[in-house]
Amino acid sequence: MRKALLCWILMSLVLGFPGLVTAKEKENIIERRTYQTKRIAGQAPVIDGALDDSVWESVDWGSGFIQVEPNAGQKPSQETAFKIIYDEKNLYVAIRAFDTEPGKIEKRLSRRDNANGDVVAIQIDSLCDRRTAFSFEINAAGVKEDELITENGMNFDADWNPIWYTRTRIDDKGWTVEMKIPFDQLRFSKMASHLWGLEVSRRIFRNDEASRWQFIPVNTPGYVHLFGELHGIDGIKGKREAELSPYTVGKYETFEKEEGNPFATGHASALTGGLDGKIGVASNLTLDFTINPDFGQVEADPSEVNLSVFETYFSEKRPFFIEGSNILNFQLTSGDGGFSSDNLFYSRRIGRVPHYYPDLGDDEYADFPDNTRIIGAFKLSGKTQTGLSIAILDSITAREEAEIDFLGQRRFETVEPFTNYFVMRLQKDYRAGDTRIGGMFTATNRSIHQSYLDFLHREAYTGGIDFVHNWKQKTYYVIFKALFSHVRGTKEAIAETQLSSRRYYQRPDADYLDFDPNRSSLTGHGGTISLGREGTGHVMYSGGVTWRSPGFELNDVGYLRSADQIMQWFWLGYRIWKPFFIFRSIHLNANQYQGWDFGKNRLFNGMNINLNTYLKNYWSFGMGVEGSFRGLSNTELRGGPALATPGGYFSWFFIGSDYRKKLNVELSGHFQQGEKDSFSGKEIEVEFNYRPIQSLSIELEPSISWDQAELQYVDTLDYGQDTRFLFAYLNQKTVALEIRLDLSLTPDLSIQYYGQPFISAGKYSRFKRITEPRAKDYGNRFQVFPNDQVSYDAENEIYNFDEDRDGAIDYSVAQPDFNFRQFRSNLVIRWEFKPGSTVYLVWSQGRTGIESIGDFSFRRDWRSLFEVTPYNVFLVKFTYLFNL
Fold this sequence. Notes:
single chain; mainly beta; Immunoglobulin-like; 24-stranded antiparallel β-barrel; nine-stranded mixed β-sheet; 48 strands; about 5% helix; globular; disordered N terminus
């Protein structure tokens, strides 16, 4: 009986409690609202925000908005109404946002896609697939924000920038909006009569209140499938959109002059051009392309000091690859942990820094390209009437050469081969989107003609299938993903892949791995299985398992942090979204996780709990604590045997003030402490946001961190027939400051500044060698070198080790202390003088300095940073849009 009851409870958690959820489900069924529009035959309304054109009288007002936040289901504090009409080419929208206190309407000027303050929005599911929508938002100051919504509201792509027109006005009744949305900016199927999904929403800034025409509770899983309906659109034909945007870029650079180096003259200039375009292949299929793209106006990556074996994941910032990037997304594991960055497609691979740097002799200098030039790329995407989503990207990058000078004689060496990248994603909807089956395939092909480039894969193929099924009004879900990879190349290339830090096939204690230097290909697999509950109640949960086999490799056009891992997890969340006591909402989460390699060795094991709250006074607070247990690292010895790792605890907190005020502040902290004092660290960060006037935003984010590690890797050395893995105690201190200034003179003219001074110093001491890497007691895993076994040669900056105390040097390592100083900044003036046509004026500056002092001194390091000769780039970019 007990076993049967336990089985029923477990099955009910997965499938929902039969017989007990039915009544609740009936309560959650929301009546779908409809709005009837009409086609106009005469003069179209003038888009001036006045709402005084007589043509608006041909349709009724849509009203009856319902509050969503903070008091879901209640009447909003201010009424909202809208009208929709259309003609052969455009959809027209009028919104009246009533306000009994118009003097309190928040009118914040900012750059496009940052519409803060009082905002209204219309969202249109023109494909009527209940999963995809186009969002058009406008704030009271006239700032646009547009987003492509996919995955039923799980993904919002703010980098989608359609051409549309809008104006706002403020009067004694509140504020008004008029919009003109060309049909060629939407996607819809060819049919005589259309039924579109529709949502209209409003946010009132001063009391952080949100209301919607079609009521959709905040705890509902998904979003687009619950839209209301827009009726009455008949006889329209999707014009095949055709846009061409040629551009020209003038660039002038200044940098430090280096005597004798013919490439470091102190300045350089260039004039280039290219073309971006968009063509509507069909009303629901669009081709985007770019020829010789330039991304000089893109903000630089943040500074960092990476002492691990893992590659840092940087987010994409280039417009061509950002827009619609969610369509080509094939994330192996969801969430925000170390596994979540793994993806079949990582667009930063295209146009990356060249792989090879030539060896230079005495009196030789090289002019090395900063990145690989993208000759051209195209992206075809859309969704058919039958529910088939299609996305194809193909890109060609140039063969890059470094120019090398030797006493006036020049030669060229190829540093990156001609490469083609191909990515294709397909996904089909069934049961109104409740079930989805899809797949993705990528191919990387390099044309390699130089033997010194044989360490690169000549061919790399990856692919995967995914299955998602939802049931009980999308409350429960199950996800299955299976992936493969196959790389080909010379024996050298495949040996490099086997020996890379992502897998380390050469590990002496990894008897389940077989390093084969004669292989010319490598194949691997990965995947995820998960199930859970998301919404329609206070409790949510998910659990599953994800894996990457030892031979799995994605990094030619994807991203893989580490192979040879299996992880199991369970997450439980509890939500309170209705205000009570001092709270507006509370989110409480608990996580459990553990992982193994394919040799069945447990690598990690831990759990955490965290709390996030939003208070009635508009402040926020959160905290969390995590505990990890003893584990095993296959990477810490960089190809050596696995090293037992100590457990520890981690904690964090944040507290934020009222974001509606001119000045708001958020304070956060992170703390960690390992067993046996194996590691420790703390970081404090403060974020100041100040808006002295509606058009100016100032953000300062200073941070400081202190980190200590007893076992920081230094080097691997040969000692007779043995190998020595050298480690040391590392004491590191880092100070950084992020600065952001945004000044919007009009919604189309803005000035933005980003700057980040970054200083980090690391001091190594207490050198030691690993003796018993898997010893149960932490202190038995290593032996600290006494003073008579290690000496420092200050003149040559090396440490010498006399392990056998015979007076002779057994091995040496370079002094590893560092002082890394960097300053990166961008000043961008952007003027969109007509929709889609833009002028950029850009000034970028970079300073980087490295020394091996080790001790941190803010005054000295700050002064030294700004004594470094800067690298300046001055750029003018002009883009003009032609609508054909």
